[in-house]
Amino acid sequence: MTAPVSVVIPTLEAADRIGPCIERLVPGLAAGLIRELIIADGGSSDGIEAVADAVGARLVVAPRGRGQQLGAGCNAARGAWLLVLHADTLLPEGWEHTVAAHLSGHADRAGYFGLGFDDGGMGARWVGAWANLRSALFALPYGDQGLLLPVALYRAAGGYPPIPLMEDVALVRRIGRRGLRRLPGQVMTSAARYRRGGWMGRGARNLATLALWFLGASPERLARFYRGQG
User: Fold this and answer.
1) CA-to-CA distance for 92 and 54, rounded, in angstroms?
2) Which runs of consecutive H residues, i.e. helices, occur in the chain?
3) Which of 96, 124, 153, 177 has its CA 20 to 30 A from that of 4?
């Protein structure tokens, strides 16, 4: 039986930090879940080609921008399921059992994990709690929570749009609440960008970005705003 899951990881200058994310995939290989690992790179100059070669991953190069990279990576996938991860995200221990159960019991629905950070402070707890509440109340999980997608549902929803920001929100809104399911456990994502920008400042910017998206701001303007460029 062919392994069902294609893992897709978008990268940009991430060769020095993607290792732990890839290492956490090993139990899925042992369980016969993972068919392939696709690294969807946006034109890095950090030696990501050597990393992909060392771990047996397929390297797909696309124009810079998470939406375009993820679209290219997912279009190249050969599995019946997609597991989309960020390069700084670690799946929870035992994730392979959770994913196997979802594949067998919820073949027509996408799954996502809860969100946690590699930081024990109050700011990390507040931001993680808000992300999990947002996902539950509004059916809006983000890409850094890990998205498990049946390819048929992914294609029916139109895939990732080729936009620089909010590509995950655009996709899950098209999938809709009935097509989403919270998986047991939570991923652990790097808090580096929050430490740089401050938990309150970065959290407020994230919330403002989401609000501007719903008000109709262009993805290009949102990307500049998110990066602090206006």
Assistant:
1) 24
2) 19-23, 26-30, 48-55, 66-76, 95-105, 122-138, 151-156, 167-175, 192-197, 199-214, 219-226
3) 177
Query: For residue range 120-153, what is the model confidence (pLDDT) as tens digits?
Result: 899 999 999 999 999 999 999 999 999 999 999 9
Per the structure block, which two tokens stand in for 131? 């992300």
Residues in the chain, overall count: 230
Domains of the chain, by residue range, sit at 5-196
pLDDT band at residue 97, thresholds of 50, 70 and 90?
Answer: very high
Largest CA distance in the chain: 51
Q: Residue 137: which of 190, 198, 210, 189 has the closest Cα?
A: 210
Closest CA to 108 of 154, 153, 165: 153
How many CA atoms within 13 Å lie on the side-chain side of 80? 10
198 Cβ contact partners less than 8 Å away, ≥ 6 residues apart:
none
pTM for the full model?
Answer: 0.93
Which residues neighbour 47 within 8 Å (Cβ) at sequence distance 6 or greater?
15
* Superfamily of chain region 5-196: Spore Coat Polysaccharide Biosynthesis Protein SpsA; Chain A (3.90.550.10)
User: Residue type at 216?
Assistant: G
**Tokens standing for residue 101:** 């159960």
